[in-house]
Write a structure and sequence with these properties.
Among the domains are: 42-212, no CATH class; 358-516, Histidine kinase-like ATPase, C-terminal domain (Heat Shock Protein 90, 2-Layer Sandwich), CATH 3.30.565.10; 535-652, Rossmann fold. Strand 6 and strand 7 (505-516) form a beta hairpin. The chain is α/β, with parallel strands linked by helices and 659 residues long. The protein has helices spanning 2-12, 16-21, 38-67, 69-75, 80-101, 107-135, 143-155, 160-181, 186-248, 253-314, 321-347, 359-369, 394-411, 430-435, 458-463, 481-491, 543-555, 566-575, 594-604, 622-628, 640-652, and strands at 354-356, 377-383, 389-392, 417-428, 442-451, 495-501, 505-516, 535-539, 559-563, 582-586, 609-614, 632-635. Helix content is 60%, strand content 12%.
Length: 659
């Protein structure tokens, strides 16, 4: 009972205070103690919510129960008339009678008993078929009982206690018929029991937690109603106090006006904080998804970037292929940056910010967007060349511009119009600061992107920054674009303002803090690959990545052994531990994860250097890396230049990963 109680409370996800207040018999699931009075109300509520799904389940059960008559004709043609008599002559009338009776006022009182009766009747019909089928040595009809359990424990809305009684009654009836009536062979009986008894037990658990969840939801609604009453009482009391206070301050109108102004400002700030909290809660779901996406995408991008990096090293500068490979490498790098953006926005990972000029990014985006613009859309731009720079990540600014220009394109796709981009600098004063949320006094670079499309009404404008909100057709947009834009701009200490009029157009004004004059253009230093001749063990469960890693390391002069299986890699190392100077392993692998593999190998050879490669590092804490003795963690996709430097740094220095 204590185990059921702990499981139930854990499943319900109730707070400690609510757990202590809620009293439930975790065997029968009925309310007990001071909450026993809720039981009747729960039955009423459960009936109201269950009656329509129950009727639908009856219709669905009739369809499936009747559809299996075709199976009778195939499996036991000599007995099909008998089976059809059971299906349509015995069980179907019960279905029809119960369905009709469900519209009676008396049905509510006997609903759970009737559901149990239906569940047992349908199961008993299958058992009779099993007895007949055994005469012609057909023993597969037991599977029908599993379908009965699925319907009985889930769809038909039987409560746990009633469903369990019906389920075990079916089990006992089957055992009696199988042993004493049809005399089923022992091996077949054991096999059948394994499956359908397991299905019955699983169904019990499902039914148990479904009803437990329903009771939790009902209980929380009761608490909510009580809290509403408490809030109403408190509000009434507060209202009374406000009236009294107003009378007392009738001769102090000036002070009262100041107090109201302060209160209104507080309410605005609180509303904004609540909005930000709501936004954060929604983005937690995206954060969970982002890790898996990052891992899969980075596994795809790793061989693309790795092979193109190696190809660029091997091709002469005058090669005709060099430009094509550079374009592939650049596109893959953009994909890597976009994956990092998903992680950054949803999990608040810091981007590599630096002083940048926005003008070149605008030119690149407009050049890209031109290809998708219809002929009747004109682009106008007014860019101040000497406005200075902003402290930001260029890829994120590129994404902001791309999202806003793409939205403008969609708004003018049918009617045509003008897409205008304006870039200038402004000085935000106190008056502007009060009008625009999150904006403080100072110098800003202002970016305006406007269109003459269909515009937005007030309600739409209030929701455009919500994740998953979109006005595009299904399949044409995820609804994440503007929420991402809002997150990026806010993260940079800026603000975004929307001005829109239906059928006239929309204008997005972005304010980004100015950091100074244009950054000086410095040429990238020539890339120098660091090489060596040590023996390296490279492990990754993706064969494409292991082959790419082998070639990459061999090009750097190393001797390489590759493994696509962590178990075989461990066996290889056990055979010749002295042979290897460095382990390079993927973190997320089946059987043994990278950190565990490193831990086992360092138990054999403590001086072994280890580099972990991973699609995302959220689950790799510094504490774990330090305890195991991981030298470095590299995020996929691997880049030849960075990889060569990291390997030499690890092999030449005793640098264990620390804070």
């Amino acid at each position: 009972m204590n185990i059921l109680k702990r499981l139930g409370r854990s499943f319900l996800g109730l707070s400690s205070a609510v757990q202590e207040s809620l009293s439930i018999n975790y065997m029968t699931l009925s309310f007990t103690g001071e909450f026993s009075s809720l039981e009747k109300e729960f039955h009423e509520d459960y009936f109201r919510k269950s009656i329509n799904p129950f009727r639908f389940s009856i219709i669905l059960a009739m369809i499936f129960y009747g559809a299996f008559a075709f199976l009778d004709a195939v499996m036991v043609p000599e007995l099909k008339e008998v089976f059809w008599l059971i299906r349509f002559g015995a069980v179907f009338p019960v279905f029809i009678a119960v369905f009709i009776f469900s519209f009676s006022t008396l049905f509510k009182k006997y609903m759970q008993l009737i559901i149990s009766f239906i569940m047992f009747t349908t199961g008993f019909g299958i058992i009779i078929m099993i007895i007949y089928a055994a005469r012609v040595e057909v023993y597969s009809y037991y599977a029908g009982l599993i379908l009965i359990f699925i319907f009985g424990y889930t769809f038909i809305r039987a409560r746990f206690l009633y469903a369990s009684i019906a389920g075990w009654s079916i089990v006992i009836s089957y055992e009696i018929s199988a042993v004493w009536v049809s005399q089923t062979p022992v091996t077949i009986l054991v096999n059948n029991n394994y499956f359908f008894i397991s299905a019955n037990i699983i169904g019990m658990f499902i039914s148990y937690f479904l009803e437990l969840s329903a009771r939790k939801e009902f209980y929380m609604r009761v608490l909510l109603e009580q809290e509403k009453e408490n809030v109403k009482t408190a509000n009434d009391a507060l209202e009374k106090r406000v009236l009294e206070r107003t009378k007392q301050l009738s001769n102090a109108n000036i002070d009262l006006k100041k107090e109201i102004d302060i209160r209104q400002k507080f309410e605005r700030e609180r509303a904004e904080l609540e909005k930000q909290l709501f936004q954060l809660q929604k983005m937690e779901t995206i954060g969970t998804l982002a890790g898996g996406i990052a891992h899969d995408f980075n596994n795809i991008l790793t061989p693309i970037l790795g092979y193109t990096d190696m190809a660029l090293e091997e091709l002469p500068e005058e090669s005709n292929l060099r430009f094509d490979i550079e374009q592939i490498n650049s596109a893959a790098t953009r994909g890597k940056d976009l994956v990092q953006q998903i992680l950054t926005f949803s999990r608040e990972v810091d981007f590599k910010k630096k002083p940048i000029r926005i003008q070149p990014i605008i030119a690149e985006v407009l050049n890209l967007i031109k290809a998708s613009l219809p002929p009747n859309v004109e682009i106008k731009q007014s860019l101040d060349p000497g406005i200075g720079s902003v402290f930001a990540d260029p890829t994120q600014i590129h994404q902001v511009l791309m999202n806003l220009c793409t939205n403008a394109n969609h708004a003018m796709m049918k009617t045509g119009g003008v897409l205008e981009v304006i870039l200038d600098s402004v000085l935000v004063d106190k008056k502007t600061e009060e009008k625009i949320t999150n904006l403080k006094k100072g110098e800003y670079i202002r970016l305006i992107i406007s269109d003459t499309g269909y515009g937005m009404d007030i309600k739409t404008k209030e929701r455009i920054f919500e994740p998953f909100f979109t006005r595009k057709e299904v399949g044409s947009g995820s609804g994440l674009g503007l929420s991402v834009v809002h997150g990026i701009i806010t993260n940079y200490g800026g603000a975004i303002v929307v001005d829109s009029t239906p059928n006239k157009g929309t204008s997005f004004t972005i304010y980004l803090p100015k950091v100074g004059s244009d950054p000086s253009g410095s040429e990238k230093s020539a890339r120098k690959l660091l090489k060596g001749d040590e023996q390296i063990l490279f492990v990754d469960d993706e064969p494409e990545i292991t082959f790419m890693g082998k070639k990459m390391l061999e090009n750097l002069g190393y001797k390489v052994t590759i493994k696509s299986d962590s178990i075989s890699a461990l066996e290889e190392f056990k055979n010749e531990p002295a042979k290897y100077s460095l382990l390079v392993t993927d973190q997320n692998m089946p059987k043994i994860e990278g950190t565990e593999l490193a831990f086992r190998m360092k138990g054999i050879k403590p001086e072994l250097k280890v580099i972990i490669i991973t699609g995302y590092s959220d689950n790799l804490s510094d504490e774990i890396l330090t305890r195991i003795g991981i030298s470095e963690v590299i995020l996929k996709p691997l880049r030849l230049d960075d990889f060569s430097k990291t390997i030499r740094r690890v092999l030449d220095n005793n640098n264990i990963k620390t804070d």
